[in-house]
Amino acid sequence: MARCILISGCSSGIGAALASELHRRGHTVYATARRIDSLEPLAKLGLRTLALDVNDDASIAAALAVVQQEQGHLDMLVNNAGYSQVGAVLDLQRDDLRRQYETNVIAPMAVARAAFPLLRASASQGGRPLIANVGSIVGLFTTPLAGAYCSSKAALHALTDALRMEVAPFGIQVVTIQPGGVKSSFGNHAEESLRLPADSPYKGMEQGIRARAQAGQVGATPAAEFVVPVVDALLRPNPPVWVRGGKGSLLLPLLKKLLPARRFDAIMSKRFGLSVWKP
Known about the structure:
By secondary structure, the protein is α/β, with parallel strands linked by helices. The chain has a single domain (4-271), classed as NAD(P)-binding Rossmann-like Domain (Rossmann fold). It contains 10 helices and 9 strands. It has helices spanning 13-24, 40-44, 57-70, 94-124, 147-167, 186-192, 206-214, 223-234, 251-258, 261-271; strands at 4-7, 28-33, 48-51, 76-79, 130-134, 173-179, 182-183, 221-222, 242-245. The chain has a 7-stranded parallel beta sheet, with helices on both faces. Helix 3 runs parallel beside helix 4. The longest helix has 31 residues, at 94-124.
């Protein structure tokens, strides 16, 4: 049976690939992004496209009003929109952290809250509605020079765990998607928002900081390849509570679990040049 699905952050990467794959399988997909023109490739494939700024409650309400009018229910919500704030923790201003958490933590909960009536409508019609929040494997461990991003995904994982238990009585399922390295423009966007002030004590670490922005793109799994097993899992009658995929998605969390903390710190510090850098 075809499902009605809304996905945020579909301008490129994982969001675009998920939207394309779900559409290919015959589902009604509302692909969304802040800029409607960025969705033109998906519109040409026949997907329904909508402007949606996940940090704007009016924009959220407007997008869901279209779904309400055209479908009357929502079977799946995928909260994918997000970005990575790269930079040393001590270089981040209050507003840097606020923007990171606003987009990666608060916005997915705001969208889920607004979509809840449409998801309940699906359940009342005998559907098995689902919310899928896109976290990251770095929500399971922390790397240097991306503490804001790692902490935002850890917070999203925790909120998603709570949400999963809280909406179960309403017949709504919740899944956390935890990608590893997946090929996209994510690294370029991370570089654009990179924080390295002129007076930063980490100015000599610029190469390592820029390497951290692009780290997930080195040998990354193509997005179209990554999403196939993810979609398989999301469409199961009883999907798993978390789905991982992409480069490093199994090995790195395992190393974090097995290694002493200082040993894992040393590996991460060496990877991004901190172990040999002299301030």
